[in-house]
Structure formats: C-alpha cells, structure tokens
Amino acid sequence: MADDAVTTGPEHTDEPVRVGLVGAGPWATMTQAPMLTGGPETRLVGVWARRAEAARELAEPYGVPAFTEYGALLDECEAVAFAVPPDVQARMATEAARAGKAVLLDKPIGLTLAEAAGLAEAIDSAGVVSQLMLSNRYRPRIREFLARAARFDTLGAQARQITRAFVAGPFAFGWRLEYGVLHDVAPHSLDLLDAAVGKIDRVHATGDTRRWVALTLEHTNGAVSQLALTGEVPEGGYTELAMFGPAGELRLDFRDLAGDEADSAAGWATVRREFAAAVRSGRPHALDVHRGLHLQRLIDQALAGLR
Fold first, then answer.
1. Which residues cross the membrane (predicted)?
2. Would the pTM count as exceeding 0.90?
3. Sheet harboring 239-245: ordered strands across?
C-alpha cells in the first residue's frame, strides 16, 4: 500500500519563496541551486558554506550574495535548503527552524537517531514546514508506479540498489565513505519499499556497511521484503524493485528511467513547486521531517543488527 505522495497546496503563489542555500559542494551545485532558480515558485537569495570561497563560486553565476555568517543568511530568507553532511544539517536546520524558517532537508536527516529525533522535535516545536529531498519520489514515472503498487496485493518483494557510489563520481568522499551504504544509499530504497509494499516495522541486517548489506524487512501488512545494497560495484550496477503477489509481478527497473531526462526534470520541478506550496499554505508535506525520522529509525535498527 502506497502512502500519499504529497499533501496538496496551492498550485501557484504570487510571490516566490525566498530560499537560502546552505552548502556549496557537488549536491548544491548540481541539483539544489539549479532547482531553486529554475522556476517561478522559489527565489535563491544567497549561499552560505563553510568555505567562503566555495560559497562565492556557487553564488556568483546566480547573481546572489555569498554569506560569511549563517545568521545573516537566515535574516534574508523564508526557507533554507540544505546540502551539507547529515550531522551538520541536523544542527543548522534546528537553528533555522527555531528562527522560524521552513526547511528543505537532504537524506538522511542526521547521522544518528538522536540527531534526527532532535531535529524533528525542533521543527515541531517551531511549527515550521519541512520537506525531504527523496528525489525519486517526485518523478512522475515513479509516482505512477506507486499508484499501481497501491492496488497490488503484495506477498513479498525483492529489491537491490547496486551502485558505484563509493568507487567513483562526485560524491565518493567524506561522510558517505565513512558511514557507508546504510546512510547514503539505503534511505531511497527503504522509502520506496515502505511506500510501495507497506509500512516497514522491523529490519534484520547482515553484512558490512562499506561493502555489501542484505536486509530483510517485515511490513505491517504481513509482507516480507529483501533488499541488497552496495556502493562498491564499479560497472553494471542498477536499482530495481520487484513485488510479487497473487496477480503476478509488479516491477520498477531504474535502467528504464536512466535516459528519461524529461521525467527527471519534472521531478526537480515538482520538488520546487510542492515545497513552495507547503511553505505558502503552512500545511506539512507528506515527505516531511517525520518521514526522515521513520527512515532513520530503520537505519538504526539495521545498524544495531550489524553490531
């Protein structure tokens, strides 16, 4: 059973939401800044990063200031988008929420369950809107799949996310290499399995977070799913979800989506539009900080099993 993709809000607002961007690394450069400047719903008002030079390099092409003080950025925006390591995000998003700013969060929302719970508590106490950048969940073709999954009677499922995330590419460094596949890769697959098959209650894990992890997931509705994860395969990796039941099989293969640039672009536009709608309406998005906290609890269960 799929959860609702989004809490709907206004389709258009007269004034774009003024968003500050925290971070100036590959994720901020490749996705966040282009997304926030790519449509009328949001307006990028500035960039803050730990390295002032990196902030200036990212801000300059968009004609916005690079802030050297985080508080000064908060003074200029209504909302903050984060593209920084999870522990840094948990701390800085807590400060943003307490300053009354809506937050657009990356996954995972913290490195530890305690960090994630603290962030969720701060957002709830402040009463601000939050939204989680589970990028796959905004793509039209994946939403279509989840709509079919909601009507599919599932006995069990198998999924794999076999990537080269830790071998090569712009993200093969830092916290991702240190903490491994459960923090970097697993949130996407856990979220899709939870949305497509049913709420995940328990996780049983074996393996090594820096090599290969195998998870068995127990869902509230009685279904059982299995998930294989690695970021160490340099060639030939792919992501796939197959659901099985009395009606046969329902499959999502990300290789079919790899070249669909229109679908990808539509997904980023949807992130921007729905975040702006949530901020303007004040109504929480379905993929909010509590979605991130649920995924963090599943990661914590898996880590406990591995220990």
1. none
2. yes
3. 200-208, 212-219, 224-230, 156-162, 239-245, 248-253
